[in-house]
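Worked example 3 (structure in, sequence out).
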């Protein structure tokens, strides 16, 4: 598999990166995980607008899904005609939420462009990829994903606070793409986000092969979170950067 970081800024875009979006490729299949603010523009540097095979949304906060509105425009008004329906997996009411955000009637909403499918905990197949979803610890319905292919795996945390189910999902994974939005000792809100130390602890408990910290907002010091993660986890750790590519 190849993982490309399309965008990794948490909460709102930074000067260096759009919000959350990740491209996973294997055997010619192209899966987009999340499509947050500004991500659609950056995505076009890595894959054609009409070459994506599926989109999976971790949850419906704007920094993870809002660029699907622009993607609807790009597909619906394509000069050569709208392409085939694109599968979009998301939490309950994803079609209604996106229609309301665009101020359009919920029926048909965006269903003539996207084939919406409701996420539930469990595994499903997307081309050559096996995707396993678990619900994580966030104020809204939110999911983390494990993607397995040919004996290799990556796990994407989405947005979550401390979560034992995330540890189990990431057990033995080759690459753990884990959010670290908070700073240890600064934010004390529970069940929202992880800090660098907690991300490291989750990776250590899971026995992950590699940890990549993501979803770090512009107001959070990534170097501090990196140090905190390294203190809790003995494997290789780095901070995600837009445009970074990982071979898994």
């Amino acid at each position: 598999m190849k993982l490309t970081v399309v965008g990794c800024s948490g909460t709102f875009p930074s000067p260096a990166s759009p919000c959350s979006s990740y491209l996973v490729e294997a055997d010619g299949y192209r899966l987009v995980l999340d499509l947050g603010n500004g991500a659609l523009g950056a995505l076009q540097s890595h894959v054609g607008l009409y070459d994506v095979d599926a989109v999976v949304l971790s949850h419906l906060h704007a920094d993870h899904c809002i660029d699907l509105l622009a993607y609807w425009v790009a597909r619906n008004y394509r000069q050569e005609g709208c392409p085939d329906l694109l599968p979009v997996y998301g939490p309950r009411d994803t079609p209604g939420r996106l229609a309301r955000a665009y101020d359009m009637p919920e029926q048909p909403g965006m269903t003539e462009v996207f084939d919406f499918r409701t996420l539930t905990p469990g595994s499903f197949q997307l081309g050559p990829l096996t995707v396993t979803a678990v619900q994580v610890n966030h104020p809204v319905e939110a999911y983390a994903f494990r993607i397995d292919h040919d004996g290799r795996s990556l796990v994407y945390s989405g947005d979550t606070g401390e979560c034992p189910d995330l540890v189990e999902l990431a057990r033995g994974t080759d690459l753990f793409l884990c959010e670290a939005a908070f700073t240890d000792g600064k934010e004390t809100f529970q069940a929202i986000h992880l800090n660098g130390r907690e991300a490291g602890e989750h990776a250590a408990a899971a026995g992950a092969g590699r940890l990549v910290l993501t979803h770090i907002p512009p107001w959070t010091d990534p170097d501090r979170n990196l140090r905190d993660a390294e203190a809790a986890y003995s494997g290789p750790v780095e901070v995600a950067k837009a445009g970074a590519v990982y071979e898994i």
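Notes: The first strand starts at residue 2 and ends at 7. The domain at 2-247 is CATH 3.60.15.10 (Metallo-beta-lactamase; Chain A).
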